Amino acid sequence: MISIAYMLLVASITAPAQEKPTQPAPIVFFDLAGMNVDALKTFYADLFGWKSDAAGQLAIPVTSPLPSAFRKDPTDKRIYIGVDNVAKKVEEIRKRGGSIDAPRFEVKGVAILALFKDPAGNPMGLVEIQNGKPKIP
User: Fold this and answer.
1) 49 domain-assigned
2) 14 within a domain of the structure (yes/no)
3) What is the CATH classification number for the domain harbouring 42?
4) Closest among 97, 100, 106 to 123, alpha carbons compared
């Protein structure tokens, strides 16, 4: 079975060269990898309500536009997930087999965060949200 990531890669290679885009290109796909995909599906479904369809594709709500940043640390790439209570979610992550890289911490004037790895070792982050936006300490 050919994965969506492979199809997107082939399409990008075979697509004709384009001029500079007139509008920003959207992020259209991401994947999470691990040896036990069923366990990862359960981990994310139980913690964040992410459900996959029969083909294994996730339909996840996304903030738009998606805030992002460039950083100098190329070894630490993370997807940040918005939750109501970072401290509570950190405990749930521990109980479900994830590991905590940085427990709840505040960046004054910016956000409340935590950093973790899922059971497969994928680095992820949490952002405490309120009314759909980052809660600013």
Assistant:
1) yes
2) no
3) 3.10.180.10
4) 100
As given in the structure block, the two tokens for residue 8 are: 């997107």
CA distance 52 to 56: 5
pTM: 0.78
- DSSP reduced 3-state for 42: helix
Q: Is residue 23 part of a domain?
A: no
d(CA 3, CA 32): 13
User: Which tens digits make up the pLDDT trace of 67-78?
Assistant: 888 888 777 789
Q: Which domain holds residue 42?
A: 5-9+29-68+75-134
Domain count, the chain: 1
CB-CB neighbours of 44 under 10 Å: 20
User: What φ, ψ does residue 105 adopt, rounded to 5°?
Assistant: -145, 155
Is residue 123 exposed (0-12), middle (13-18) or buried (19+ Cβ within 10 Å)?
A: middle
DSSP three-state, residue 106: strand
